Structure formats: structure tokens, C-alpha cells
């Protein structure tokens, strides 16, 4: 007797995306890797959906875990926990239909020998939890980890902290820095000159192939602008990759040297320059060891930092960073700042910036540098002439926070300052 092979049934996209989201959660929470580098194992719309779901879980994980603690005596194994987290967030935050979510959660638990025994538990506990909306609604709003909340609340107060955390939940729009006028349907021109879109596939937008613009948050586009007219100036972009600020400076007419220590990230600088047709001298070097043959007119130092100003677009960050990262980063920042100050001519300017919410990576670095270097001065930075809210002005420069421009969709957290070397060496 011959048997015809059973036709292979295609997995529905919703289940494939949920499985992809579970893989992404393991990638972040257990492997300590960043979201968004293809770890879902999917492509196309299912990959995008998996990424969105994993991001949603990472944003609301505190609430999901609290809900599980209230309904379960013992916490299940890591993968089962992720399956339950995803289901809770899909039902309570994303508004997904309960039965589909529960069925897929049970199906996912059954798929692996390590979790199959817990599929009954997933079914029973999930049915109870998804029926308990009032318990979910009573949970406190998602919050940043304590090591981040404390310094933010101390510096800007509880109300500002709550507004920043709300901005993180709202996510981020897509901002573009144009180098020439470009028409993109649905794009709004921000007061700072960036173009803002709700989202979309970047490579399909008009002007991508021709390099008319590059993706850059409106806040990230501000540090290079602090140098004013750079036409013909020799500017060093220190810590340059992937090259957002290099492109801005080159487009503004500077003779740019772009330096970064990471070969992988440097490839992005080359690709970006090639696509936009802009020019810069590109150097792969460690700024702590390298020295220029001739000092520069200006240096822009976009120092490595906790990147906590970008949590809106990177919900994995609070799960990947720890308070102990801060000490090593602040040390590297002041070393890099001292190097940058040594790379400019007497009277030359150094823009120091970080995409961090933490004053120790921003305001405090400038206070300390002014103490370390007698004769070093602060140059004024006026937010209003750049199109920013007046409240962005602080003693050390400009402080941008994610809750600024709430009606326009916010901006990344950023700190920036302009320092001027004395005309004569002390
Ligand atoms: C915040 S990112 C720079 C973003 C970039 N300025 C832009 O606008 O696209 C910080 C960069 O510092 C680089 N970096 C870290 N330590 C460095 C060092 N010792 N020397 C040179 N670059 C370094 C990292 O490789 C990373 O690309």
C-alpha cells in the first residue's frame, strides 16, 4: 500500500512571529545581546512583527512579572516565563484576542521537550490571568531600573521622571536629516530642520537610493549644529561610527576626519558616505592612543555612553545595561574628553555629547573638565536659535530629554556642550 506524503502545512504568520519574539527575548534576556540583529530567525513581515512583540514585552516586562507573581506560587522556567510574558502583554497592551494568544502559548510550550511538561500549567494559569484585567490595570506603570530612576529623579524631579518613562513607552518616530530638499509623503518638518515620519521601511522611502538624507534622531542632529558655520574648517569627528555627525559636518562644508575604534561600525561609515556622496577622511584607531599630525580647528566627541537617552527606540537597553557599566563609561568619557581637548588648536572648540539620561555622563563631565583644565571655557549654546525649546538650556550647554516636544512625538535624551581651549597654552 502506498501513502501519499501529507501536504506540509504552513505555520500561520502570527504563530511564527510569536515564536520569533520568544527567540528574541532569550537573545536579550539570557544571551545579553541587543534586539534587532536578525536573531528571530525570520524575514519579512513576520520578522518585523516578532521584533515589535519582543519590544513590547521588554517595555512591559515588570508588569507581566508582577502579574505572574500574583498568580503563581513558583516561577516557571525561563522560556515558559517568556511565553507567559508575551501572552499577557499581547492581551493587555496590544489588544490581541485571548483565545488565539492562549492557544499559541500552549502550542509553543508543547513544541520543546524542555517545556512540554509545563504546557498544562501555561494553559491553566494563562486562562486565569487573561481574565483578570482589573489586576493588570491596577499594576504600577512600567519603570526604568532603580539605578537609572534615582539619578533622573534627583536631577529633574518625580514629575519629569514620570513623563520620561511615559515617553519611553510611546516609542519613537523615524527622523531623517536631509542634505537637500526632499518630498516624502507624510513627513513633517521639525523646527530644528529634521524630517519626521511615523515609521516605514527606510530603504523604500524616496531619496534613500540617492542619499538625500540619513536616519538620525532630531536630538542627535543637534551637537554638530553647535559648531555653527564649519565651511572649510578641519573638524575631527571623534567616535564617529556609524557616521551621522560625520555626514552632517561634511554636508555643511567641513573637511572632516572621522575616527572610530570599531572596524565593524566603521564599515557603516563607508556605506553611509558612499550612499550620500559625501566625503571624509576615515580612520580606524583608538582615540586613547592616536594623535593627529596637526591640531584641528574643532573636535566633535560623541562619547560612548549608556545610551539611556535612546530607550524609546531600544527597549532592550534597560535589560542589558547595569549600574556597574556607568563607572567604566564615565572613566572612558573623561579620558576621551581630555584627548579631544589636546587635539584642537589653541582657541579651538570641542563639542562633547552623549545620548545618556545620566548627569554623570553629561553635566558632571563638563563641570569636572572645567576644574581639570584651567583656562578652558564654556561657549554659549542657544536652544531657541536651533529650533529647540528654551528649557533645554542648562549651565553646561543643552540638555534634551525624551519628554520634550510631547505633542510632536518627543526626542531622544541627549546632553551637549561646547568647550573652548584657551588661546594660549597655560
Ligand atoms: C555614540 S557612538 C558614536 C555615534 C556617531 N557619532 C554618530 O553620530 O553616528 C560611540 C562610538 O565610540 C566608539 N569608540 C568607543 N571607544 C573608542 C575609542 N577608544 N576610540 C575611538 N572610538 C571609540 C564606538 O566604536 C562607537 O562607534
UniProtKB/TrEMBL annotation:
Family under the similarity heading: Belongs to the class I-like SAM-binding methyltransferase superfamily. RsmB/NOP family.
Pfam families, sorted: Methyltr_RsmB-F, NusB
Source organism per UniProt: Jannaschia faecimaris
Active site positions: 355 (nucleophile)
Keywords per UniProt: Methyltransferase, RNA-binding, S-adenosyl-L-methionine, Transferase
Any one of the GO BP annotations: regulation of DNA-templated transcription
MF terms (GO), sorted A to Z: RNA binding; RNA methyltransferase activity
Name of the protein: 16S rRNA (Cytosine967-C5)-methyltransferase
InterPro entries: MeTrfase_RsmB-F_NOP2_cat, MeTrfase_RsmB-F_NOP2_dom, NusB-like_sf, NusB_RsmB_TIM44, RCMT, RsmB/NOL1/NOP2-like_CS, SAM-dependent_MTases_sf
PROSITE patterns: NOL1_NOP2_SUN (PS01153), SAM_MT_RSMB_NOP (PS51686)
Binding site for S-adenosyl-L-methionine: 239-245, 260, 286, 302
Domain SAM-dependent MTase RsmB/NOP-type stretches: 136-422
PANTHER family per UniProt: NOL1_NOP2_SUN FAMILY PROTEIN _ ANTITERMINATION NUSB DOMAIN-CONTAINING PROTEIN, NOP2 YEAST -RELATED NOL1/NOP2/FMU SUN DOMAIN-CONTAINING
Amino acid at each position: 500500500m502506498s501513502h501519499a506524503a501529507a501536504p506540509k502545512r504552513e505555520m500561520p504568520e502570527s504563530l511564527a512571529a510569536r515564536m520569533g519574539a520568544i527567540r528574541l527575548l532569550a537573545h536579550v534576556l539570557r544571551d545579553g545581546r541587543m534586539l534587532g540583529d536578525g536573531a528571530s530567525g525570520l524575514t519579512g513581515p513576520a520578522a518585523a512583527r516578532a521584533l515589535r512583540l519582543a519590544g513590547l514585552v521588554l517595555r512591559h516586562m515588570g508588569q507581566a512579572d508582577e502579574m505572574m507573581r500574583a498568580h503563581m506560587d513558583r516561577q516557571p522556567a525561563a522560556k515558559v516565563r517568556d511565553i507567559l510574558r508575551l501572552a499577557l502583554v499581547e492581551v493587555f497592551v496590544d489588544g490581541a484576542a485571548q483565545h488565539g494568544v492562549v492557544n499559541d502559548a500552549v502550542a509553543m510550550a508543547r513544541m520543546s521537550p524542555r517545556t512540554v511538561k509545563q504546557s498544562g500549567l501555561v494553559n491553566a494559569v494563562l486562562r486565569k490571568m487573561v481574565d483578570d484585567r482589573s489586576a493588570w490595570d491596577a499594576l504600577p506603570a512600567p519603570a526604568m531600573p532603580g539605578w537609572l530612576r534615582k539619578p533622573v529623579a534627583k536631577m529633574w524631579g518625580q514629575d519629569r521622571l514620570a513623563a520620561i518613562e511615559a515617553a519611553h513607552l510611546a516609542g519613537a518616530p523615524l527622523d531623517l536629516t536631509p542634505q537637500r530638499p526632499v518630498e516624502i509623503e507624510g513627513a513633517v518638518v521639525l523646527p530644528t530642520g529634521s524630517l519626521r515620519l511615523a515609521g516605514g521601511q527606510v530603504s523604500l522611502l524616496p531619496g534613500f537610493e540617492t542619499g538625500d538624507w540619513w536616519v538620525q534622531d532630531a536630538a542627535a542632529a543637534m551637537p554638530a549644529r553647535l559648531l555653527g558655520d564649519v565651511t572649510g574648517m578641519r573638524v575631527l569627528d571623534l567616535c564617529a561610527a556609524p557616521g551621522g555627525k560625520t555626514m552632517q559636518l561634511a554636508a555643511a562644508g567641513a573637511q572632516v576626519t572621522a575616527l572610530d575604534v570599531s572596524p565593524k561600525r566603521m564599515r557603516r561609515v563607508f556605506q553611509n558616505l558612499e550612499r550620500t556622496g559625501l566625503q571624509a577622511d576615515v580612520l580606524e584607531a583608538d582615540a586613547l592612543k592616536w594623535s593627529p599630525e596637526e591640531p584641528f580647528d574643532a573636535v566633535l566627541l560623541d562619547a560612548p555612553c549608556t545610551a539611556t537617552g535612546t530607550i524609546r527606540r531600544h527597549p532592550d537597553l534597560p535589560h542589558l545595561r547595569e549600574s556597574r557599566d556607568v563607572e567604566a563609561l564615565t572613566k572612558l568619557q573623561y579620558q576621551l574628553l581630555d584627548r579631544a581637548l589636546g587635539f584642537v588648536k589653541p582657541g579651538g572648540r570641542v563639542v562633547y555629547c552623549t545620548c545618556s539620561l545620566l548627569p554623570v555622563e553629561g553635566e558632571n563631565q563638563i563641570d569636572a573638565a572645567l576644574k581639570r583644565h584651567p583656562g578652558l571655557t564654556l561657549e554659549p549654546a542657544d536652544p531657541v536659535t536651533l529650533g529647540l525649546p528654551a528649557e533645554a538650556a542648562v549651565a553646561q550647554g543643552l540638555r534634551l530629554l525624551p519628554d520634550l516636544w510631547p505633542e510632536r512625538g518627543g526626542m531622544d535624551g541627549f546632553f551637549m556642550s561646547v568647550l573652548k581651549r584657551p588661546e594660549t597654552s597655560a
